Amino acid sequence: MNPFNRFLLSISMVPFASQEWVELKYKNIPANTVTYNSSSIDIKVNQSASPLVHKLSEPLMIEEFDFQLKVSGEIPAKPNEKIGEDSFFRLGLVATGDKKLNWWEKKLASDWVLKLFSMAPKGIGLDKIYFFNVGSQASQLGSQRLHPKSDLMLEKIIAAKKTGTEEVLEVNHRLSQPLNVVALWISSDGDDTKSQFSVTLQKLSLKKSAP
């Protein structure tokens, strides 16, 4: 393979139509208010949290992505907290792997876990959701963790909103290694900090190596 082919990327724009996304809810947590437009998705958070899931038409080997957000409002920051439970925005890449649920695990699993595994093509397992977060403090940039409540979630903060202002964030991120992605998972969370804020997702594109 020509080593320069890695830099020949094809771009896939992610649609914002409501029929392209599934809204999930967490037990005992109020859901966000979501509005779909032709050119954006508007998310209003009021001490709430809920994810949106988009299944790709086919698995894609993703090398890079970019998105544009308008964010208004704040998340109270805790001193020296590297990654908080709440985030203005998380882009999750649902990657294939070896994990599958057996009969007993399906009986015990949360609804969001069942939905996650339903995204995998028949006969294919999952690895985890690789989350790329917009944090509330510049000091958080680069922080990474395996989520303490689930080994299905790995988080890394790749951008941060400035305090005290409405901001448009344009984020481009190249993965350290390509991921074979079957679905996207986006979320904005304010339930833990009792926060109120709004996020408008104005662009989301995925980049993969061209044949």
What does it look like?
The protein has 211 residues and is mostly beta strands. The protein contains two helices and eleven strands. Helix content is 7%, strand content 53%. It has helices at 103-108, 111-118; strands at residues 9-13, 22-23, 33-36, 41-46, 49-73, 87-97, 125-135, 144-146, 153-160, 167-189, 196-209. It is globular.
Task: Give descriptors for this structure.
about 210 residues, mainly beta, 11-stranded mixed beta sheet, about 5% helix
Summarize the structure.
This protein has 211 residues and is mainly beta. The chain is built from two helices and eleven strands.
**For this entry, what is the oligomeric state of its chains?**
single chain
Number of strands: 11
Structural class of the secondary structure composition? mainly beta
Major sheet details: 11 strands, mixed
> What are the secondary-structure elements, in order, as H or E?
EEEEEEHHEEEEE
**Rg (CA only):** 17 Å
**How helix-rich are the residues, as a percent range?**
under 10%
The separation of the N and C termini measures: 10 Å
Please count the helical segments.
2
Strand content: over 45%
Low-confidence stretches: 1-6
Form type? globular
Overall mean pLDDT: 88
